[in-house]
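Loading example: each entry is read as two labelled lines plus one structure line.
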Amino acid sequence: MSAGLSPELKKKIGHIVARYPKKEAAILPVLHLIQREKGAIAKEEELWIAGLLEIKPIKVREVVTFYTMFHQRPVGRYHIQVCSNLTCSLMGGEKVVDHLQKRLGIKIGETTADQRFTLSEVECLGACEQAPCMMINFDYYGKLDPEKIDSLLEGLD
Amino acid sequence: MAEKILTKHFDLANLYEIETYLEQGGYRAVTKALKQMTPAGIMDEVKKASLRGRGGAGFPAGLKWSFVPQTSDKPKYLCVNADEGEPGTFKDRYILTHNPHLLIEGTIIASFSVGIHSAYVYIRGEYETVAQRLEHAVVEAAEKGYLGKNILGSGFDLDIFVHRGAGAYICGEETALLESLEGRRAYPRLKPPFPASVGLFQCPTVINNVETLANIPAIIEKGASWFLDKGLPRDGGTRIFGVSGPVVRPGIYELPVGTSLREIIEIHAGGLKPGKKLKAVIPGGMSAPILKPDEIDIKMDFDSLAGIGSMLGSAAIIVIDEDTPILDVLEKVAKFYAHESCGQCTPCRIGTSWIYKIVKRMSSGQGEKGDAEELVRLASNIKGKTLCPMGDAASMPVLSLAQKFKNDLESCLKEG
């Protein structure tokens, strides 16, 4: 089973696995790489990883479901993750969520019909000095207000 | 203005590049350590410096290193804890972003002292761009001969690998970090055995926080007594205090260990925003028991805060203003721990969710008489009854909020 991965990615995975004395330890970096290419970790990918790392498929499932950053179904092209923890809420994080829900026409946990946006609420992102903050894919944005959010969203293709 | 150790050159835009770092005297400490000092001599110097762990627990770093058995024929590992997840904490992100070579330099010296040849930096998954910058710095350091085989002709070898987590607060707990790094769900391990003897891949392991290791080069270059003088006799050096919430200048402030909380909030962070009044402060990350305004004339060091029933933790200061209902604070705290409990120990798994349910009921206006007492009872039954300190972390803020702000919470209860 190949899980349909590109040759470049397979080469990269090979390098990563070699960094650890036990293959199994490469599971998080391997999952990150595969999710980046495939958008999610579905059953086919789980089985391929189990074969690669010589572990039972259930062990892969345990990891995929334990860590919040892995998705079993693809998220939208832009995954917006808004911090809902203490500092961000002290600084108006709820208004950020309200505005995003209204503007995108979806609720927390949903994806827009055109698959462009998924909106999630997350715990502390480690950028409390810029509260309220959020991530769009892997980029951080802070000191948010409705105007700033609008201009950020308008800047996306 | 007190001298800075870690953030001294943060105004240089390209400090993260090795050429700029070298121009500022970077890697001099590695040269000194590898060419002029013995591994035992380095460990002694770090012990004398009273460098205490910056991740939260405050364990003396030199002592931690000395627990690694030198007679074992197994490989030894260093795990750098860059899983910064304690709400309110963002200091390690600054070190990793602006000064990654300082961490690498500290990692090399620590590894040389303990006899380690592989180090893994476990960095939280969300910090992807930060991890990329660190990986770039690792490549630069290897190209200059500071990593890899026979570093600076000393015969000492070291590789550093950057390993990203994937969104689980529990991985900041050191044994959960080991489980995660080995490729499993991050269930904390029963101690003993301690990681110093049985750690990563069942081998002797040191786990140090980013900021802890970033202090090592200065201790080696300038000596333990210089470092000790910057802080307190039992708690040397500076701390990077992170201030967040409705203050004029939220951000990081590197100040001597023992600087007063009032000074940090009122002078360095500029005080509360105009029109805002202080209601409470969380002094050391979300799990630290909350302080009232009359308690902020306190020195920010491990022992002083422990003395008033709170903790310095990660030195993350969250400022809460009078306009914020305490019930809202409690709800955020309860939601976080219910979400982040790994599920292994029953008191934490059930207790945190139960607490959150009661708090939500109170928030919806349906709180019942005795709810505040029930929160205290539940939190008390988590504390000390779990494998890892997350149980304590979840219960301490709830206990302090329910006890110090009992009247605020009772005023939210349903009448009659």
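Chain B has three domains: 18-230, 238-321, 326-410.
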